[in-house]
Amino acid sequence: MLQRIFLVGLLAALSFVFSVTPARAAKPWELLIPFKRVEASADKIYRLTDDHGPWMILATSFAGPGAEKQAQTLVLELRKKYNLEAYLHRQTYDFTEPVVGLGLTPLGGPKIMKYANAAKFDEIAVLVGNFETVNDPKVEKLLEQLKYARPECLDVSKNKGTTQRFVGLREIQRRLTPDLDKKQRGPMGNAFVTRNPLLPQEYFVPKGLDPLVEQMNRDVEYSLLKNRGQYSVRVATFRGSSTMKINEAKKLPSKLEEAAVKAHELTLALRKKGIEAYEFHDRYESIVTIGSFDSVGAEQPGGTMELNPAVHQIMQEYGPKRQPLPGQEAIGLMPRALNGISFDVQPVPVQVPRTTIAASFTSSHRALR
Fold first, then answer.
1. How many angstroms separate the Cα of 267 from the Cα of each of 121, 232, 262?
2. What are phi and psi of 309, to 5 degrees?
3. 320-331, pLDDT tens digit by residue?
4. Taking the domains of the chain in order of start, what are their residue ranges?
5. pTM listed for this prediction
């Protein structure tokens, strides 16, 4: 009975959200242009600025003599051939300075240590995309596209040399790995999602939930808002709207309801198996996450992220199964499912949303008006 009451209330809130959200009218010229063409001028250097992002994908990086030239060549090819917004960003790394190590000296002072391979160098990164949120569904699609893309400028067999970072090591790893999926990846197979490094840390501090979204999740038994960790792993996403056709616009509220019900049912099914699952609903989608963590992992000097083993285990356990495609020798990815409800093809860590004093004040203030 309590579950029925919860679902009735949630579906009513979702229907209200849909009814008060104004539709965006297309500009006249947008109807005449089938798609936006990204600028790609050989006379222009596309450098990263704080106007880009805030979320992007680091495709690859270069270092050494000629690094910027090769990075610029890749930027132009990504813009011309793939129609992607690509930018250059120079980062300086200095490993020549002494650092304070763990423990104390025999005299009780701090241990002063140096890096074994002390060096100072510049690295030129190529970043792609402009995303307002890391949960934008286009992020996953673009990341997948970059990992398997094969730009001509990165083809070592066609070029005399390359300044791409760790290209030799990655090629050896690709040849030795038994993972068929990794073998098929291109020279940007290690691309990953990152933040615009030119934006301050404060920009990425959660600004509090929309009061209406907070209200939608407040009384949910296993709400993600009750997760005590800083991060969780999103394993399933159910989007409320998947069409822009005018004749289907009236069906959108039912899709929001269906998304909420699926997320709720999957969360309960996971909880029955003893798994720490949570659900969260907003204006556009419902998600299911697993686990609570204080850290996703540790950032390495090269900018890569070494994942928390527990986080990585969840991503592997609920990621897709690899199996032969019907009638083919190729290996395909089949999403896992529980009680007939499918998980995401790519589980990802997400930050746990938090209510703030400011959000609570705004909600109370509106209620009193």
1. 48, 14, 8
2. -55, -35
3. 988 777 777 777
4. 55-92+122-201, 206-368
5. 0.48
